[in-house]
Amino acid sequence: xxxxxxxxxxxxxxxxxPVVFALLLGPGLSLALNGEPVFYKALLSRxxxxxxSFPLMALPFFILAxxxxxxxxxxxxxxxxxxxxIGHVRGGLAHVNICSSLLFAGLSGSAVADAxxxxxxxxxxxxxxxxxxxxxxxxxxxxxxxxPIIPPSxxxxxxxxxxNVSVAGLFAAGLVPGLLVAxxxxxxxxxxxxxxxxxxxxxxxxxxxxxIALRRTGPALLTPIILLGGIFGGLFTPTExxxxxxxxxxxxxxxxxxxxxxxxxxxxxxxxxxxxxxILLLVGASVTFxxxxxxxxxxxxxxxxxxxxxxxxxxxxxxxxxxxxIIGMFLDAGPAILVLGPVLGPMxxxxxxxxxxxxVVMCVNxxxxxxxxxxxxxxxxxxxxxxxxxxxxxxxxxxxLAIEILVIFLITYFPALSLALPRILGFV
Length: 428
Fold this sequence. Notes:
mainly alpha
């Protein structure tokens, strides 16, 4: 089988075709041009089998849970709680932005959802308080990448499905890298806030005020605790945990907080179904494309090409990080993982890299790529929300990106940072 499908895929992407159509049309047109229609039946079979998976059912349920909590005003309660904790320090709103992203990550698992939902709250508020609009958009973009790293994470579910890695183990492996990103961003923010004399958001909250804020957002903050406790404790699988999250979100928003009406659920269900259908079709197309890559021998060609450059594992990991960061600038994290995972994963695993270690490195890389100039998707979301130019935001992003890239190299060359918790829990 020729490699014309790959060049057709690249051409379609460059022409602006949606990723899912590029993934399907590339191989389809290639088979037609090469006179190999016998493979069409196999392609359709792979497309269906790629979507027909019980573990993948976790994605629609997590999407539904995040949509319900966002519509039900949970985002605002998380912001209020974060502000009661650290709003009194210099640059407090920027710190609250990061802290809210950290807490919101346990609910949505999406960088784009984080940048959109929190950006609409923080960017106008920070600008009104005296921050540069471009800085406000930059810190929103930088902190949003925590979403897909802290569990539950949609991209980790995708990686686990396509590469046959434990979902629960990946969730555990993402905790420390996510916390490192948050801590690093807060350290940089502290330095910039003092240097630029950014304002203090509000007076130190009393313990009573913090208690009121905690009571309001407490049920939402219990969500990741219930999910991870249930998964790691063996009470339910990640897929069942996603269903529990969706049911729990409905209960607390409708009956406890009373912030969502039953009649409002239908639009939420429809929106979640559309998002889920899009993602599952993308997964099916990616599984099909991955099969073509294997059959055509492209994975072996890429592996041999990299080994011709060097057989030093440390240098190969450096090349891997650079390549993934560049890919992340142009492709959303999900498609990047679905397409590149089957290509790069086996080669590095054969070189002695632990499968879960490689998974975390890849997931964090492509996620940070979402906020990397010039084409990072999260940058465009923040630019749209803030009405600020992408290049202006990009300049403000430089110190934050430097920290995130530092975290990538730390977890790359110190595997214990990501593998220690999964090892303690028995997943490694």
